[in-house]
Design goal:
The complex is a heterodimer. Chain A is α/β, with parallel strands linked by helices. In chain A, the strands form three sheets. In chain A, strands 5, 6, 8, 10, 11, 13, 15, 16, 18, 20 and 22 form an eleven-stranded mixed sheet that branches. Chain A has a ten-stranded mixed sheet with strand order 4-3-7-9-12-14-17-19-21-23. A two-stranded antiparallel sheet of chain A has the order 1-2. The N terminus of chain A is likely disordered. The mean pLDDT of chain B is about 90. In chain B, strand 1 and strand 2 form a beta hairpin. The two termini of chain B are about 30 Å apart. In chain B, the strands form three sheets. Chain B has a six-stranded mixed sheet, sandwiched between helices. Chain B is globular. Classes of the chains: A alpha/beta, B alpha/beta. Chains A and B meet through helix 9 and helix 10 of A and helix 2, strand 7, helix 3 and strand 8 of B.
Chain lengths: ~475, ~250
């Protein structure tokens, strides 16, 4: 290729700045006292403290999962602070009450809080380190019965709902990182859509890690009652730091009869520098239960950040005729590693699942698709379609695919397609001959490769995802 | 406009072009003919800036600039367009999208603002009509699932939209049926003017019945062995390249 790598100024990670704000940080380390402290700070009811402690004690008996196709030095869980919050005297009631320093942070991130207020169509919950700062459009949504708030607030204001549904999909003992999260989670978003209500706007949460040597542990819980609809989006960024930082989240979705939850993620945590120094370790458990008949849960993820990504947004298809979908773009450049995919568990009759994944590896990136499609013995006429495509840019990266299929009912219809291709020099040259730089050509070709996934994103975010992919690919052509 | 002097080109260790000299003035149409493996496509690839071809000696200047110093995209932005012999498929990228990126890339190079969407669509639709291309092709992925003829027509369509100054057509006629050939030829002819030049690389005289060249050059074994006007193409048709070769041997 005719572009000299020297000429390509490495695009800095745009969101790598640090907000200088007075912080309330817990001392490093994890023990029952720390959990009690977090619980106290969050003003937890007793049942929640008990829940945390139970999770913690179970976590102590568990081992770090060794099966993912990723390598990283052992994490010292006592060298992390489990709580960090900007010092705020009182929770802001309106946008005007927010600390200007924080406001500026979100301006820099391209999420001007002021504008959000005017920008119709998207309501945002802002999570900064361990706390939710503010949720916009809350009152407007409340008028039609929708609850959209931070999970801390939900614990206080809607304890019955939280108590009923927290852990309903991902139990505290589910896996190592879910157990850790259950013990120390500090905030996150809560969404409740009542029966028959179609949420009139996109709901979104913007996660930001700022403090040093801290982990972020948030939980998101979305409940869609019968016949309701919601589209939810999360975005994530973090400052550039030489140390790795841990992020372990849990997301639970519950869809009743005829309800639809569309959950989109644009994950752009700091990926580390080009030599693989620093970056977020992203260990996330995301799962949805399609409890109701004809319910539908659709996961769309664009994973461009993090030094390590470990996540398998899954659907448990319990209700007859329920639908699970997973659309994923995962990009690993430089020394990033991703082991990501999905589980589609078919339990009900006539359940359908679709899996479309696009893995792109550049630099020394390692990209693994891992997926399970399981057809239970009572899941008559279940159908799955899986398509897993990988693209390689350069010859030092890797793509790996581990599809598991378990069929216990002979009426199942399964389709699985997989491909691996190297980005073509011919394609790049063709675009260059039409006037595009090699970088733009790569970005165009990769975006084309991901089109089937991007079209599942809400429009504004699809544009953002394309742009993000281009930035993440910079420096990959040499 | 284009001046090629004593050009020697290697691919890997094999010398393909062994001293090609050619001058093309604005408004001229040059046809380059020759047997398989004579170096025709190499010449077009070198002009477009394909890196795997190494220029060992000689020079190419385009509009007074040293072409060999320019990246492929800079050459494109300077006004060189190549219609590919084998147009490449780019799945998931809409035809219009590539075209608009290409056009705006060139406009940016020229210091112009990007073309407004409405104007772009207007231009595009007009050109499509002339080439009898169905509008549905705009949203189809670049060349994906196109028939051979559609691909070639798409190349001409891109050429019409981008309005280059030097058009290189690398065996655009191969694989076309007679109707498609006519459409492609009309597309080329409609672009001919006193400023735009063409290099038409072809095996056969057939296309030249429709697009009448000012000059015909015969490339044999990496050298232009004979140059003439359109009559030379007819002569080739009659005697074959072997005939030209014999003539040359007799002469020397």
């Amino acid at each position: 290729m005719s572009v000299d790598i020297e000429q390509l100024a490495e695009q800095e990670y745009k969101y790598g700045f640090v907000t200088d704000i007075e912080q309330d940080i817990a001392p490093k380390g994890l023990n029952e006292d720390v959990i009690r402290m977090i619980s106290e700070k969050k003003n937890d009811p007793q049942w929640l403290l008990d829940w945390r402690l139970k999770a913690y004690n179970h976590w102590l008996t568990m081992d770090v999962p060794k099966w993912p196709n990723i390598t990283y030095p052992e994490i010292d869980f006592n060298d992390i602070s489990y709580y960090a919050a900007p010092k705020i005297k009182e929770k802001p009631k309106s946008l005007d009450d927010i600390d200007p320093e924080l406001k500026e942070t979100y301006d820099k991130l391209g999420i001007p809080l002021e504008e959000q207020k005017v920008l119709a169509g998207v309501a945002v919950d802002i999570v900064f380190d361990s706390v939710s700062l503010i949720t916009t459009f809350k009152e407007k949504l409340a008028e039609i019965g929708i609850i959209f708030c931070s999970i801390s607030e939900a614990v206080q204001e809607h304890p019955d709902l939280v108590r009923k549904y927290m852990g309903y999909v991902v139990p505290t003992h589910d896996n190592f990182y879910a157990a850790l999260n259950s013990a120390v989670f500090t905030d996150g978003s809560f969404v409740y859509i009542p029966k028959g209500v179609r949420c009139p706007m996109e709901l979104s949460t913007y996660f930001r890690i700022n403090a040093e040597n801290t982990g972020q542990f948030e939980r998101t819980l979305i409940i869609a009652e019968q016949g309701s609809y919601v589209s939810y989006l999360e975005g994530c960024t973090a400052p550039k730091r030489d140390e790795n930082q841990l992020h372990a989240a849990v997301v639970e979705l519950i869809a009743y009869d005829d309800a639809t939850i569309k959950y989109s993620t644009i994950q752009n945590w700091y990926p580390g520098d080009k030599d693989g120094k620093g970056g977020i370790y992203n260990f996330v458990t995301k799962r949805g239960r399609c409890i109701g008949k004809r319910s539908r849960i659709s996961w769309t993820q664009v994973e461009t950040g993090s030094a390590i990504t470990w996540k398998y947004p899954s659907c448990i298809l319990e209700g007859d005729n329920s639908i699970g979908e997973f659309y994923s773009v995962a990009l690993t450049n430089n020394h990033q590693q991703a082991d990501t995919g999905t589980k589609m568990i078919h339990i009900g009759k006539n359940t359908t699942s679709t899996i479309i994944t696009k893995g792109i590896s550049a630099g020394f990136g390692q990209n693994t698709y891992r997926g399970l499609v399981q057809i239970g013995k009572n899941a008559e006429n279940a159908r799955n379609y899986s398509q897993c495509d990988s693209m390689l840019i350069g010859d030092k990266c890797g793509a790996h695919t581990f599809p598991y299929i378990e069929v216990n009912n002979s009426t199942a219809q399964m389709e699985h397609e997989a491909s691996t291709s190297k980005i073509g020099e011919d394609q790049i040259f063709y675009c260059q001959q039409r006037g595009l730089s090699a970088e733009d050509a790569v970005s165009l070709i990769v975006n084309g490769f991901c089109k089937d996934v991007f079209k599942e994103l809400p429009f504004e975010f699809a544009v953002e995802a394309e742009r993000l992919l281009s930035v993440s690919l910079e420096g990959s052509v040499g | 406009m284009l001046e090629i002097k004593d050009l020697h080109v290697k691919i890997e260790d094999k010398e393909i072009l062994k001293g090609v000299t050619l001058t093309i003035n604005p408004g001229e149409v040059h046809s380059i003919m020759g047997p398989n493996g004579s170096g025709k496509s190499t010449l077009s690839q070198v002009l477009a800036g394909r890196e795997s071809y190494k220029v060992t000696s000689g020079s190419i200047t385009f509009k007074g600039k040293n072409l060999l110093e320019l990246a492929p995209e800079q050459r494109a932005c300077e006004g060189i367009f190549m219609a590919f012999q084998y147009p490449v498929e780019i799945p998931g990228v809409a035809n219009t999208y590539l075209l608009r990126e290409a056009l705006n890339s060139r406009r940016k190079y020229q210091g112009l603002e990007p073309l407004k969407h409405v104007e772009f669509i207007k231009t595009v639709k007009e050109k499509m009509k002339n080439l009898k291309i169905d509008e549905s092709m705009l949203n189809r992925s670049v060349n994906e699932g196109f028939s051979g003829g559609e691909k070639k027509r798409n190349e001409i369509f891109q050429m019409q939209v981008l309005e280059p100054e030097l058009c290189i057509l690398d065996e655009t006629d191969s694989g076309l049926d007679i109707d498609a050939l006519q459409v492609v030829a009309d597309g080329i002819n409609s672009m001919r003017n006193s400023k735009r030049s063409f290099i038409i690389i072809t095996h056969y005289q057939r296309l030249l019945n429709y697009v009448v060249p000012d000059y015909v050059h015969v490339l044999i074994d990496g050298k232009i062995e004979k140059s003439g006007n359109k009559e030379l193409a007819l002569e080739l048709e009659e005697k074959g390249y072997a005939g030209i070769g014999e003539q040359l041997q007799t002469a020397s």
